Amino acid sequence: MDTQEESSSWEPLRPQLAPKYLEQTLKLFSRYYNFVTIDEAVAILEGRLPSKPNCCVVTFDDGYRNNAAHALPILQKYGVPAVFYVATGHTEEQRPFWVDRLDYALQFANIDGETIRYKETEITIDKSNRGTLARSYSRLRGILKHADMPDIEMRDYFDQLAESLEKQSGMSIKQIVKDDPWSAILTWDEIGDISRSTEITIGSHTVDHVRLGQTGAEASRDQVVRSKEAIEKVIGKSCRHFCYPNGSWNQQAVDILRETGYASAVTTDEGINDPGADPFKLKRISISGKKDPLFLLASTAGLSR
């Protein structure tokens, strides 16, 4: 989320959601929607609870600390339950996500005009202004995010790229991540406190934020089981809900989640979910902050294109 009121040595190229926009959206939606927990939503979809008109679930991916610092007070103000999906390895190690590491590295490395090659694709980094750099970063991020290769190979490639950029500049987001308002990850203590004192459900986002659609069965099972166990140890109750990192999933991933005790999983596929929808293929509508909240309201009502 946007942390404009906090001082920082950098500002991400990746768009951030402003707390003011989130509040405007929740205030508007509270007039038309019934905010429910993810447990209630799944029970309604499966027919175990009677349907309510216009049910809505709010979700946050990754487990950034600014979700708690900025979004949580707004959620509580409007009485909105939500789900925080956390990647437990990043929580445990206070390890930055690769999208933030890449963002930071590109901003500080002296590589204007240089070319980064990924397979047959070449990306020329244009640092002539912030807008052109943001476009270079967005293109590179998109290519890596959707790379058609085993996830472990993509992460190895990224680590080599990031280390090369960091060596060139002598700077790494790893040096600041624990206190950085943009990239800091929630700690286990903070997650435990949130789980005990708020209407926030803690869900799994794997251990290492791996793309399950590009990961073998054994590794996928390890990722979803270990993350589930780690969360349950901290919150003292069952972790039943999952979010596919980068929206990457396949039937293998769905089967593993069912077998290992999860009750739902959310994708990044755009859309709404009607009763009878598969709880392991749930669609969502992104709150990007780029459009007026009224347009977002129309989107969720199926009134926009």
From TrEMBL:
Q: Does the keyword Signal apply?
A: yes
Cite the NodB homology domain residue spans from the record: 54-305
By its UniProt entry, which Pfam families does this protein fall under?
Polysacc_deac_1
Q: Does the keyword Methyltransferase apply?
A: no
GO CC terms on record? extracellular region
Q: Which domain of life is it from?
A: Bacteria
Keyword terms of this UniProt record: Signal
What does the entry give for GO biological process? carbohydrate metabolic process
| PROSITE patterns with a match to the protein in the record | NODB
Localisation: Secreted
- From the UniProt record, which GO molecular function terms apply? hydrolase activity, acting on carbon-nitrogen (but not peptide) bonds
The protein's predominant localisation is secreted
PANTHER family associated with the record:
POLY-BETA-1,6-N-ACETYL-D-GLUCOSAMINE N-DEACETYLASE (PTHR34216:SF3), PTHR34216
The name under which this protein is listed is Polysaccharide deacetylase
From the broadest rank down, the organism's phylogenetic lineage runs: Bacteria, Pseudomonadati, Pseudomonadota, Gammaproteobacteria, sulfur-oxidizing symbionts
